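Reviewers asked in the last cycle whether our approach scales beyond single polypeptides. To address this, we selected a multi-component target totalling 476 residues and predicted its structure end to end. The input consisted of the following lines:
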Amino acid sequence: MAFFGLPLIFVILAYVMIYFIAQPIIKPVSSVFDMMTGDTIPDFSENQNTNDILKISNLGDQANLISSADMTLPRYGDVYANLTIDGTGVDAPVYFGDDNAILRKGVGQYCGSMLPGFGSTTLIGGHVNTYFKGLEKVEVGNIIDVNTTYGAYKYTVTDLKIVDYQDKSAYDLSANHDNLILYTCYPFGTLGFTSQRYFVCAELTSGSKVKYTADN
Amino acid sequence: MFIIVTLLIINSTFLNAQFIINIFENNNYYAQMYDEFSQEVEYLADPAGIDSGVMSSVVSKEQMQQDIVGTVYSAYNYKGSAGYSINKDNIQSKFFEKISEYAVTHGYTVEGDIKTNLEYVSTYAANTYETYARFPYIDYLGDFSVRLKKAFGIVLMISIALVFALITSLYLTTNWKHRATRAIVYALTGSGLMLIIEPLVFLLSNKIKYLAITTRSIYDFAVGYAQEVLFMFVISGVGLLIAALMVFIFIYKRQYKKAF
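The resulting structure, written as structure tokens, was:
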């Protein structure tokens, strides 16, 4: 019995000793470990993290003011809207997020900008050779339709700009009114990475405002 | 004994480039990393107006494996810029050559703005390649390992000398040799259990699989690495328990012989 009992006591004492010696670093280490782990085992299958099914609910058609508590906010990688500009050939699914994988499937909203109806700037980018090829045909006064999962929005094009890729003056993410900025590489129909960007600026003309509530 | 085995495990895992290479091989790391790189390069082709597949075959799988292994060994064996380095200029010129060919066959003349634009693409692709071929934080890990190795050796020698001195003094200070041997059995069993319990609890909890890493190759590597280290603790613990059992059997055989 002593052959098992004594070592076991020895182990318990040793663990207690290690615990007291290592106490100052146990909490930081376990905090870092908690930060590095999630609630679920990562899923690397092709369809993970994306929701390609677009359900337009048009909450805004019934009421002119939507509560954010009534809508499902998109997660990164979700498609939450469809963007069309008549007569230009632009017809693209809008994803929340704008990484390389997303821009292959549609156009992407920069996560640091606001969703339509939230009272600020919505910044959407797309590739010049695919979904935003038709932006070269856009003219001031054209209507941009953005049908989201929570309502339909119409914007009127007010300005077209060509700026350097590092120039951030073409848009204002802190604006206090609903506006839409579409951008792509410039010039159109060329090869390689270009150093200029083409911006289409538009102002909201119709669509429900979203009232943000803390419940969401 | 627990400290000695722990130090030996750390020395052969965290401070050992070959251990990382073994984990790469066991977890299909090279192939996965190559696929992820090829995918990323494909994503670059879209905005550049280049067809799918043109850029993905520029760097071979073998070249990438050689660069991954080279940078790992180099980080663990050399300080600063000495050792292996990825030939980024060569990669960049390969990409440029390939996309220039593509441009010419599609009726473009590679000069002026087009040439500059294609150079941007090839530079970006070469930088992307380096990001994928160089294991994340490997330079910091390698540098840390190089600096720690010397100190580790000294601590290990001191620990071994200490254990040896304790065992010797134990035998010299008692006339009951079997009691001294029994004390060693306790120490071996205790050390063995210490090495087994905590890592086994961690392994069985499956907590490692919840690592929030979004890249498959890195995730598989990290999980494989952690599991392998924990297995080494458990196996070493089992080894000590077997040693304790053998000493235990040895004592009883001798006592049994004496009694009859």
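The two ends of chain B are 35 Å apart (CA to CA). We regard this as preliminary and will revisit it once experimental data from Aim 1 are available.
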